[in-house]
Amino acid sequence: MTAALTVLAALGGLVLGIRAELRATEEAEQVDAKMVSFYRTPTMITVLNGSNRVIAMRLSLEQPSVWWDLQAVPPCQKIDVPPTLLKMSMSEAVPRVKVKDIDLDRLRLEFMDSEGRTWIRAGTGVLRRSAGWEQSLASVRMVSPEPWNAKPEETAACGT
């Protein structure tokens, strides 16, 4: 009986150790991802790269299936995007796509960390892993040449 309890205790310790290691690995994977965020006010969409690494990013909508490529956002930089200019850039590039204000409520930020893992941060702030840069043939991609995309600004919020 004592031997059986010892074996069970050892197995329990092993399982707890493995779970702790997995949790630590997941947290380490999220270091860059947690430093990337975006938020929306009625007059501005702000994308922040608080990481000390260059991060490939894009703003996207599932319906209509479109995205605006922010390319590689430098470390410790932010991009402020007026929603009207975001909609205008898409309508000028692809007139058949009509992005409305209500659509922008579902805007999300997709990005790739330094290890090539892809993430999605919803407008609610929720962070989750992504299967990859989801690109369907029906999607419309827009690389915006506007100044808000070409000239990020420094941000005080920056990790190590």
What form results from the Cα inertia axes?
A: elongated
Order of helices and strands: HHEEEEEHHEEEEHE
Give the strand order, joined by hyphens, for the main sheet. 8-7-6-3-4-9
Mean pLDDT: 79
Tally of contiguous helical segments? 5
Residues in helices, as a percent range: 25-40%
Largest sheet: 6 strands, mixed
Strand content: 25-35%
Radius of gyration, CA atoms, in whole angstroms: 20 Å
Oligomerization:
single chain
What's the count of strands?
10
Distance, first to last CA: 52 Å
Low-confidence stretches: none
Give your account of this protein's structure.
With 160 residues, the chain is an alpha+beta fold. Helices cover 32% and strands 31% of the residues. It has helices spanning 2-29, 31-34, 83-93, 101-104, 147-150; strands spanning 36-40, 45-49, 55-61, 66-73, 77-81, 108-112, 118-122, 127-129, 140-143, 153-154. The strands form 2 sheets. The chain has a 6-stranded mixed β-sheet with strand order 8-7-6-3-4-9, covered by helices on one side. The chain has a 4-stranded antiparallel β-sheet with strand order 1-2-5-10. A hairpin with a 4-residue loop joins strand 3 (55-61) and strand 4. It starts with a helix and ends in a 6-residue tail after the last strand.
Helices and strands, with pairings:
Blueprint: H1 2-29, H2 31-34, E1 36-40, E2 45-49, E3 55-61, E4 66-73, E5 77-81, H3 83-93, H4 101-104, E6 108-112, E7 118-122, E8 127-129, E9 140-143, H5 147-150, E10 153-154
Parallel strand pairs: 4-9
Antiparallel strand pairs: 1-2, 2-5, 3-4, 3-6, 5-10, 6-7, 7-8
